[in-house]
Design a protein that fits this description.
The structure holds 2 protein chains of 2 kinds. Chain A is mostly beta strands. Chain A contains no helices and 11 strands. In chain A, the strands form 2 sheets. In chain A, strands 2, 4, 5, 6, 9, 10 and 11 form a 7-stranded mixed β-sheet that branches. In chain A, a hairpin with a 4-residue loop joins strand 7 and strand 8 (78-83). Chain B contains no helices and 10 strands. The N and C termini of chain B lie far apart (35 Å). Chain B is globular and about 40 Å long. Classes of the chains: A mainly beta, B mainly beta. The A-B interface holds A 33, 35, 37, 44-47, 50, 59, 61, 95, 97, 99, 101-109, 111-114 and B 30-31, 33, 35, 37, 42-45, 48-49, 54, 84, 86, 88, 90, 92, 94-102.
Amino acid sequence: EVQLVQSGAEVRKPGESLKISCKGSGHSFTSYWIAWVRQMPGKGLEWMGVIYPIDSDTRYSPSFQGQVTISVDKSISTAFLQWSSLKASDSATYYCARRRKENDYYYMDVWGNGTTVTVSS
Amino acid sequence: SSELTQDPAVSVALGQTVRITCQGDSLRNNYANWYQQRPGQAPLLLIYGKNRRPSGIPDRFSGSSSGNTASLTVTGAQTEDEADYYCSFWDIRGNLLTFGGGTKLTVL
């Protein structure tokens, strides 16, 4: 079974750093780009960026460029999302998802279970 | 503009048909993907490309496109279809993904 398993919920204080993970299994992890999506409480989905595990080629949404860092360790089939200095507004659930390409279109067919991040003093 | 606009909420009687729409200039001559998100769950891919459904998605879900509007149709809505629905579109190079604001579907 193809799965993306994300790390557990985190609680941090403003200004702290954080790195959450997304581990793939059941498929060739390096064959697909991995995307990150934010969902703030009671709000919609927001695309943050996408990374290619083979060479770590990364594309960021303009809204998140410079705010987060997306990385990958292909040796352990795991993608990461990290913050160097969290803000209260980073409180949200974060999803990773596998991106596929078929003909001329892209889609995300497998999603992780989500990691809830709470930032509060 | 890369924005995608969805109605915030739509309702349908049990067993009836409902159409959820997604408007945006980027959809002209392109296809949207559709995701379902039930409360407390991760999004689930419903429709991708030209009305393609992943394995396991009921055929009561279908997608279409006309002009700058993509539509998700639920034919014979069931109680379990009550959820949020999001359209999305990747640019041609896969460098930018836009989500619609989401539509909350209520099954009466």
